[in-house]
Amino acid sequence: MDAVRILFVCTGNICRSPMAERLTRAHLDEVLGARASTVSVTSAGTHAVVGGEMEPSSAAVLAGLGGDPRGFRARQLTAGMAESADLVLTMTRNHRRSVLKLAPRTMFRTYTLREAADLLQDVDVDRLPGMEGTDGQPPALVRALGQQRGTRRRGDREQDDVFDPIGHRESVHQDVGEMIVEALYPLLDALCAERAPVAAPQDDDTQWIVPTRFRVA
User: Fold this and answer.
1) Which residues pair with 197 in a beta bridge?
2) ∠ CA(165), CA(169), CA(173), 5° rounding?
3) Residue 43 parent element (H or E)
């Protein structure tokens, strides 16, 4: 059974969200090894090019960043996809609104990618339990992001969107890929870092020992 289920959403599901999906898979495979299989990573589009392959420029950028575009096929977003995810990361605020229109109960599990990365800066990640043992509840990191959401100023939200590179030259797709990586990798490392509770020798209190942080490429 998957410990964590992540869903990425954009418009056509051929540029931004598949880049995020495949970069996530590559990064988790590297940092988690065999345990990466416990994390489900998918993507979908609000107006998907259903069955379509990745847009060629985005596919080339993805490969250059270490992801694998082979075998990808675009999917249309459904309410069931959003409702079954522990964390929904959209590329824009409009995409987030579309998700919430389909699945209103996912409000505290749905963020734009850059919004989540911004909220992460105010989360004390070292005090959170790891992703294991969620007992059907969203991961602790997702709950912590929700607690921070109300503190954001309106001006902070203007930078929440990852713009659409479709129809632009490959350098624009490269910019988008790098923007996704910058926001994505710290979130993944925070979500998947191993933290083991160890009894302190003086009393019964539990302390958290945090290993060296995963590399952020």
Assistant:
1) 208
2) 40
3) strand 39-45
The two tokens of residue 106 are 């996912």
Q: Judge contact between 43 and 113, C-beta under 8 A.
A: no
Best CA proximity match to 217, nearest among 111, 91, 64: 64
**Residue 125: both structure tokens together:** 């990640």
Radius of gyration of the CA atoms of the chain, in A: 17
The dihedrals phi and psi of 206, each to the nearest 5 degrees, come to: -100, 135
CA distance 4 to 2: 6
Which pTM does this prediction carry? 0.86
Q: How many CA atoms lie within 13 A of 85 on its CB side?
A: 29
Core vs surface per residue 127-149: b (16+ CB within 10 A) or e: ebebbeebeeebbbbbebbbebe
Contact status, residue 43 vs residue 155, Cβ threshold 8 Å: no
Residue 179, SS3 per DSSP: helix
The token duo for 39 is 């994390």
* Total residue count of the chain as it appears in this document: 217
Tens-place pLDDT, residues 86-120: 999 999 999 999 999 999 999 999 999 999 999 99
CA distance 140 to 100: 21
Task: Answer yes or no: CATH 1.20.1250.20 is held by domain 4-209.
Answer: no
């992703």: which residue's tokens? 131
